[in-house]
Design goal:
2 copies of one chain form a homodimer. Chain A has 9 helices and 9 strands. In chain A, strand 7, helix 7 and strand 8 form a beta-alpha-beta unit. In chain A, helix 1 packs across helix 4 and helix 2 packs across helix 3. The mean pLDDT of chain A is 92.
Chain lengths: 216, 216
């Protein structure tokens, strides 16, 4: 399979396919038609068939797709079997929510360290993982070949933290801060979550909806 | 100004313009060139001029843009002056993070109520706002003309909560659950934050980066 031929928009839909297939599997569903997948994906059956054909197609005409097989193939394309080793920096509310509730092992990562600069929480645990002193972050990452970091820290702390992560080999960042990592490290792989930008977008849509209602 | 002519992609960039202009204003910068804005926006000066021309253009050749004026105009386009009344449902880690740290008044919303179903936290406060019993949610929203709800609850609780919010007039949702609100309420305005989808996308990019490195 040549992944270079897969468009960005197909890739962006894969996590959603994966999520729905996981739900189907949990409900004991063994096979699913492209029509049913389309319904769940809010798409069309032909779009679904086209998406899955990008990967060589996993279905049989009139017989549907095997849920478990399809889920497994999508997992491989996404690299969810890679179990990248990750640390989380910043055990405040967002960091704790992420460390406590996300099923990393299903999402391609293995959380192996949590760090904070608040010494009153050093040693306390989230999901069996001890919160460590952030001053040990750099050596921990170098010693343990850490691949990724989840940044749940204030923006002004981010440049120094990212600098030490980068210098110990970390190249992958899930960034909840407003620090622009790729400006300083162009070869970093980054996903940003800018909650305030999303809320402003919601405000715009809400405002539009209100204005349309007033006009009609 | 006719907002209908503004493309979706320009709109999507506006929160970022707004955020950077806020930072410039906080740093005491009074005027900014399209070149400087382009640098901050990781864009080109001509793209920036084109974006801002959509709104009638706020700059003067060779003189740049007034930071405060431009920020104000973008705020108006986004509707940030509307102060939509919002409630937050689910005061766990994510909900608490959002209630405690987001500057809603700059983002178009006013948080006026926090609800949870855990009676051991009823009455405790986040940013001066008392956590209330979720059984009072529907009457509170109807009595207070609530516009929006931020949903930080488990997926299986979402259908019932959204149902009672909708029936008391709420049409705008910031949805951290995996419940598909628009499937049941097509006229709702929704922004979803699917953290696990974002993490899988990061995994894919990381995996791609690793494979490229191995090939080179």
């Amino acid at each position: 399979m040549n992944k270079d031929n897969i468009s960005k928009s197909v890739i962006r839909r894969l996590p959603r396919y994966y999520r729905f297939l996981t739900e189907l599997e949990e409900n004991g569903t063994e096979r699913v038609s492209s029509g049913k997948l389309a319904e769940i994906m809010r798409s069309t059956a032909s779009q679904v068939r086209q998406d899955l054909n990008c990967f060589g197609g996993f279905g049989h005409q009139g017989y549907g797709y095997s849920v478990t097989y399809l889920k497994g193939e999508i997992a491989k394309i996404l690299g969810l079997d890679k179990n990248f080793k990750a640390v989380l920096v910043g055990a405040g509310h967002i960091g704790t929510a992420i460390a406590a509730h996300m099923k990393f092992e299903n999402l391609g990562f293995r959380l192996v360290g949590i760090f904070d600069n608040n010494q009153s929480i050093f040693g306390s645990k989230i999901n069996e993982l001890e919160i460590r002193d952030v001053s040990e972050l750099q050596s921990f990452c170098a010693d343990n070949n850490i691949d990724a970091a989840f940044l749940c820290i204030p923006k002004d702390e981010a440049p120094e933290i990212v600098g030490s992560l980068y210098s110990s080999g970390v190249r992958c960042f899930w960034n909840f801060t407003h620090y622009y990592i790729q400006g300083d490290y162009p070869d970093a792989t980054v996903e940003n979550v800018h909650l305030s930008d999303i809320l402003m977008t919601l405000c715009y849509s809400m405002n539009e909806a209100v204005e349309k209602n007033e006009q009609s």
